[in-house]
């Protein structure tokens, strides 16, 4: 069967500034929380590889954009690093950063690759973290000013903007589970950070719409459906609570303008409501997005709690449900994530039925694999058929959703070229293009990159 996608479908990939640019302390950029954390605890980064050099995009962007074209991209997302553009978080704009991002944007447009720009990819400038991150009103306003600065500088050419990538990740990784700096474990503070991020987002949307630049603004959310273990009432309730916390906490306010009532009740009951004003709620209500980006990697499976949590343990969402390891599930063993393709269909149908069928696209989906060298063929490139199969099997479900009326406008893979992945550094490779760290960041297109070109030029594939 031939799977053909709608006309003008976006085929491309996503990356982020901090994970690809490198040049961390070059041309006036100042540290983000990642640079700072690495100086304090390098042992928490895989193989001790930190954020300083990443994949050298800062210097090789022209070659990279040519490779985007070669691998069929009609669009590509990256992010503007706040700590590069406004190194102190507030105040002076760095002219060298303006020059760099101008060159990247212009080159992409010249090569026929539409730039999608994100404004925050887990990368709080350290100076802003010192002021309290998104717990602080000053930082929320500084972010909105940074966003508006970007719109004014680049909005004549960039017509697809995104305020945040996976805003729940810094909340859970930084304030609940000790995975990212600032390594706080405190649910009440996590809720405050989530609220502050939502408000910062809404202020950026307001600024963008106010400028009337004739483009679209959205946010990128990692939506992982919460599948209950069974139809037992207790399992269904567990899944509902997980869904409220991990999906709807951001999805509802950015698309519908309001937080889910059940979530507000839950937080009130446990005395975790954040500090806010009525004016904040109005700002959130009045500034909803034009387009949604959905990152999907793995499903969340949930069951009712088996044991009571220790009464002295700090509250975490898992006090309300247990994560469920479904027997015989298909796994990506390198990343430790389940592969469940149908979820992409379920997400699309949920948006169609419960979120006014708003325009969205898959903004990340992908497979991180360790030791890809093992798959190098005699012609010297990586024969990553597993990645091609992974993409196809997800696209089949996406195609079904579109044929049933879902308003999906594109598919972006994570990622274009192998990049630095936070604490996992270069352990798992996701790219259509290999980056050889032992040979001057040499780029080599993988089998998936060649296949992606055909996929895009045929606007679909045969399976
Ligand atoms: C997404 C992020 O969560 O997943 C990316 O937006 C990240 O920044 C990607 O790199 C893959 O996850 P990981 O943890 O393997 O890097």
UniProtKB/TrEMBL annotation:
Which keywords annotate this record? Glycosidase, Hydrolase
Note whether Coiled coil occurs among the keywords: no
Checking Pfam families in the record gives:
Glyco_hydro_1 (PF00232)
Q: What family does this chain come from, according to its entry? A: Belongs to the glycosyl hydrolase 1 family.
Q: Which GO terms describe its molecular function?
A: 6-phospho-beta-glucosidase activity
Under which EC number(s) is this enzyme classified?
Answer: 3.2.1.86
Native organism is Listeria fleischmannii subsp. fleischmannii
Which biological process terms from the Gene Ontology are attached to this UniProt entry? carbohydrate catabolic process
Q: Does the keyword Hydrolase apply?
A: yes
| Any one Gene Ontology cellular component term annotated for this protein | cytosol
Q: What is this protein called?
A: 6-phospho-beta-glucosidase gmuD
């Amino acid at each position: 069967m031939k799977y053909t996608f709608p006309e003008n479908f976006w085929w491309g990939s996503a990356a982020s500034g901090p994970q690809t640019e490198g040049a961390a302390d070059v041309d006036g950029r100042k540290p983000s929380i990642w640079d700072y954390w690495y100086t304090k605890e390098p042992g928490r980064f895989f193989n001790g590889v930190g954020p300083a050099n990443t994949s050298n995009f800062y210097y090789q962007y022209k070659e990279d954009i040519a490779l985007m074209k070669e691998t069929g991209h009609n669009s590509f997302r990256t992010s503007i690093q706040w700590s590069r553009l406004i190194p102190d978080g507030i105040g002076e704009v760095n002219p060298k950063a303006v020059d760099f991002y101008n060159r990247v944007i212009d080159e992409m447009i010249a090569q026929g690759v539409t730039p999608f720009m994100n404004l925050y990819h887990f990368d709080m400038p350290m100076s802003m973290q010192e002021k309290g991150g998104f717990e602080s009103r000053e930082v929320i306003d500084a972010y909105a000013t940074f966003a508006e600065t970007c719109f004014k500088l680049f909005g004549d050419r960039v017509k697809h903007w995104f305020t945040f990538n996976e805003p729940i990740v810094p909340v859970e990784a930084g304030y609940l589970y000790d995975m990212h700096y600032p390594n706080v474990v405190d649910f009440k503070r996590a809720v405050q950070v989530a609220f502050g991020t939502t408000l910062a987002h809404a202020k950026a949307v307001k600024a963008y719409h106010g400028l009337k630049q004739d483009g679209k603004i959205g946010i990128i959310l990692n939506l992982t459906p919460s599948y209950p273990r069974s139809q037992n009432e207790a399992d269904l309730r567990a899944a509902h609570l997980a869904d409220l916390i991990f999906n709807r906490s951001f999805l509802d306010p950015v698309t519908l303008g309001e937080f889910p009532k059940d979530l507000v009740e839950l937080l009130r009951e446990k005395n975790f409501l954040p500090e806010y004003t009525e004016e904040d709620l109005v700002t959130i209500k009045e500034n909803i997005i034009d387009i949604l980006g959905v990152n999907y990697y793995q499903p969340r499976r949930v069951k009712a709690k088996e044991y009571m949590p220790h009464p002295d343990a700090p509250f975490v969402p898992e006090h309300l449900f247990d994560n469920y390891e479904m027997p015989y599930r298909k796994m990506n063993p390198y990343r430790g994530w389940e592969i469940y393709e149908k979820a992409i269909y379920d997400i699309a149908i949920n948006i169609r039925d419960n979120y006014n069928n708003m325009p969205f696209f898959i903004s990340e989906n992908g497979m991180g694999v360790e030791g890809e060298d093992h798959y190098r063929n005699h012609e010297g490139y990586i024969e990553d058929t597993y990645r091609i199969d992974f993409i196809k099997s997800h696209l089949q479900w996406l195609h079904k959703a579109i044929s049933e009326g879902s308003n999906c406008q594109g598919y972006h893979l994570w990622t274009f070229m192998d990049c630095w992945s936070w604490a996992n550094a270069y352990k798992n490779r996701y790219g259509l293009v290999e980056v050889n760290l032992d040979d001057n960041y040499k780029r080599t297109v993988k089998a998936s990159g060649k296949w992606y070109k055909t996929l895009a030029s045929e606007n679909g594939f045969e399976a």
